[in-house]
């Protein structure tokens, strides 16, 4: 998807952007593919908060230009290709199409698409993303099929935010004396400095997924220490992740690449057949977005 400015001059720089629910990372390249700089900003989930996402995209590309010792004016000479969480939803995608961006031109797709394309260099294969959210996808003969990834409210099982949310639900039930209050509930209360159900709900009732994701390292650490509640949550999430990964592997006929900030921590929890299908990523999602542009894989119908 793209939105072009009126300039016919070829871009001098290319920025590949990976925008997830927690952070947005941009890599800046010259036309020969040499990495010039990188920049990181906040959340770029375009479905959850389009305005915040647009600010993060701009901030990450600007930071990459600064890292490359280039002036802010270079934004107008930079072609930006990005993969963003939420871009698979028509309402979010249509809103981003209307963005009056400051770049030379702008192409975008889902973060899954760019991650998958980069991971397998455009060849058939699968990816399992475990970060703030979760999903799996298959690339088969250029066609992407997604499994899971339905967002924090309705899905993202096994993700960092999901583990945190389940820990909070357990804690509330422990405070209400429905479940036994153990190490996990105590850790949740201490983390948020909230020791009653009312205080905990008050702090988290309007919280975004990243706030729940703060609990993920705590849940994983307690699981490693054999805490039964934490172990059960990790097992439940990992079983789901293995199931959607299995679907993606079968659909693609290829191997599986793990992506996302929680992937390394949960890799050993995945089922044996999934671990046996793992391979290393060829490229990161930032370069994957640029490859999509270079290979003409942004569909004509998605362009403005």
Characteristics:
304 residues; alpha/beta; Nucleotidyltransferase, domain 5; 2 domains; six-stranded mixed beta sheet; four-stranded mixed beta sheet; 10 strands; disordered N terminus; disordered C terminus
Indicate the topology:
Layout: E1 2-4, E2 13-19, E3 24-29, E4 35-41, H1 50-67, E5 78-84, H2 90-97, E6 105-110, H3 111-119, E7 125-130, E8 134-140, E9 143-148, H4 160-175, H5 183-192, H6 197-204, H7 209-213, H8 216-224, H9 228-252, E10 256-259, H10 263-266, H11 272-276, H12 285-294
Parallel strand pairs: 2-5, 5-6, 7-10
Antiparallel strand pairs: 1-6, 2-3, 3-4, 7-8, 8-9
What is the share of helical residues?
40-55%
Compute the number of helices. Answer: 12
Low-confidence runs: 1-7, 299-304
CATH architecture of the largest domain: 2-Layer Sandwich
Task: Please give the number of β-strands.
Answer: 10
Major sheet: arrangement of strands: 1-6-5-2-3-4
Which fold name corresponds to the CATH topology of the largest domain? Answer: Nucleotidyltransferase, domain 5
| Element pattern in H and E | EEEEHEHEHEEEHHHHHHEHHH
- Beta-strand percentage range: 15-25%
Oligomer: single chain
Tell me the name of the CATH class of the largest domain. Alpha Beta
The overall pLDDT, averaged over residues, is: 91
Task: Tell me the count of domains.
Answer: 2
């Amino acid at each position: 998807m793209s939105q072009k400015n009126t300039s016919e001059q070829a871009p001098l720089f290319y920025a590949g952007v990976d925008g997830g629910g927690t952070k947005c990372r941009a890599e800046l390249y010259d036309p020969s593919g040499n990495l010039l700089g990188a920049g990181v900003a906040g959340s770029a989930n375009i479905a959850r908060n389009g305005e915040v996402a647009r600010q993060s995209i701009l901030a990450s590309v600007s930071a990459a230009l600064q890292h490359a010792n280039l002036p802010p004016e270079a934004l107008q000479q930079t072609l930006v290709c990005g993969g963003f969480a939420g871009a698979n939803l028509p309402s979010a995608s249509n809103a981003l199409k209307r963005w009056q961006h400051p770049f030379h031109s702008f192409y975008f797709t889902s973060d899954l698409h760019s991650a998958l394309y980069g991971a397998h260099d455009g060849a058939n294969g699968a990816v399992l993303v475990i970060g703030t959210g979760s999903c799996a996808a298959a690339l088969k003969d250029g066609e992407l099929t997604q499994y899971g990834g339905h967002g924090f409210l309705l899905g993202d099982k096994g993700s960092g935010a999901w583990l945190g949310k389940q820990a909070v639900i357990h804690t509330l039930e422990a405070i209400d004396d429905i479940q036994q209050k153990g190490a996990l509930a105590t850790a949740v209360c201490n983390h948020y400095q909230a020791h009653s159900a009312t205080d905990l709900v008050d702090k988290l009732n309007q919280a975004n997924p990243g706030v729940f994701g703060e609990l993920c390292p705590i849940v994983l650490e307690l699981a490693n220490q054999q805490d039964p509640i934490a172990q059960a949550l990790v097992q439940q999430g990992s079983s789901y992740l293995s199931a959607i990964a299995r679907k993606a592997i079968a659909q693609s006929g290829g191997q599986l690449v793990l992506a996302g900030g929680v992937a390394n921590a949960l890799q050993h929890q995945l089922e044996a057949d999934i671990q046996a299908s793992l391979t290393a990523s060829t490229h990161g999602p930032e370069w994957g977005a640029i490859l999509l542009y270079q290979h003409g894989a942004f569909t004509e119908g998605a362009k403005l």
